[in-house]
Amino acid sequence: MRLVSAFVPIWVLTSLGYAACRWGLLGEAGASVLGRFVFHLAMPSALFLTLSRMPLSGFAGRSLLAFGVSTATVVGLGWAGASWLFDREPGERPIRGMAAGYVNSANLGIPIATQVLGNVSFLAEVVLLQVLVVTPVILVALDRHSDPAGRVRVRRIAFLPVRNPVILASLLGVACSAAGLRPPSAVGASLALLSGAAVPAALVALGASLHRAAPSRAEPAGSAELAMITGLKLVAQPLVAYAAGLALHLSAPQLLAVVVCAGLPTAQNTFIFAQEYGVGETVANRAVLVTTTLSLATLAAVAALLG
């Protein structure tokens, strides 16, 4: 019950963000500005501080392996399902796979981990796994299919960390941890203030985005396909993570962390990548919206069952 009650602030702040956007309290650009503040400043600060203080030897290898197994399984199923069940073009399949298995480890992951798990240590490891392993695989596939000659733009992928503040902050945090470096006290205090704003601002921005999200009509996205992606994301991935965790003999707290992180909704990066490459934009948009809305209930159920 304690874990389930941890979702109350999440529901309250998300509802406030929705109401504030609906009533026009944030202005026309308020919701997007708040989202950019979270993505470019608050969230990177929180991840940097967490990773820079985490000894590299403290990484949870078996837990991360269980999460990785769930990600690989579900991304693969979503990718294959787009081909076998819905006959999607090769260039669209990576977006379906990403929508099914790439979790929102930043905007929603940090508030969930903070409230339910008590810290973001394991979530930071999930961020690195997705950044260093899953993202390059997706981008290589999208690049290859978007180029007429089937070439991969290596320079574009190599400079991804520089263009993405969440990735850059995570990598800098790991580097500082490896080198034993700590930021000066004034810098650390400033980052701590910014990171403290990450959770409430992210939840308010999430609620605002749920009100503002409107799928494009330019590209049809069938309900059957969306149902498959939603089922893979919110049901199959947590179940695979749970089975993998049991097989690896994880402790109860480790198992809870793995399953909760696996049950996070589709990341907004899925829509960003779809928009960038011009493939699967509608299904990515709807997958983010639907899984984000339903995950607040499914994650509470996970916490109740495993807590």
Q: Which key features would you list for this structure?
A:
single chain; 307 residues; mainly alpha; Na+/H+ antiporter like fold; 76% helix
Q: How would you characterize this protein structure?
A:
By secondary structure, the chain is mainly alpha-helical. The chain has a single domain, classed as Na+/H+ antiporter like fold. Helix content is 76%, strand content 0%. Helix 4 runs parallel beside helix 14 and helix 14 (252-262) packs antiparallel against helix 16. The radius of gyration is 19 Å and the shape is globular. The termini are close together. Residues 214-220 have low confidence and may be disordered.
Strand residues, percent: under 5%
Tell me the domain tally. 1
What is the rounded distance between the termini? 8 Å
Give the SSE string: HHHHHHHHHHHHHHHH
Under the CATH scheme, the architecture is: Up-down Bundle
Shape verdict: globular
Query: Which runs of at least 5 residues are low in confidence (pLDDT < 50)?
Result: 214-220
Assign the CATH class.
Mainly Alpha
Task: Give the strand tally.
Answer: 0
Q: In the CATH scheme, what's the topology name?
A: Na+/H+ antiporter like fold
Helix count, DSSP H or I runs of 4 or more residues: 16
Overall SS class: mainly alpha
- Rounded mean pLDDT score: 83
The biggest beta sheet reads: none
Short structural summary:
With 307 residues, the protein is mainly α. Helices cover 76% and strands 0% of the residues.
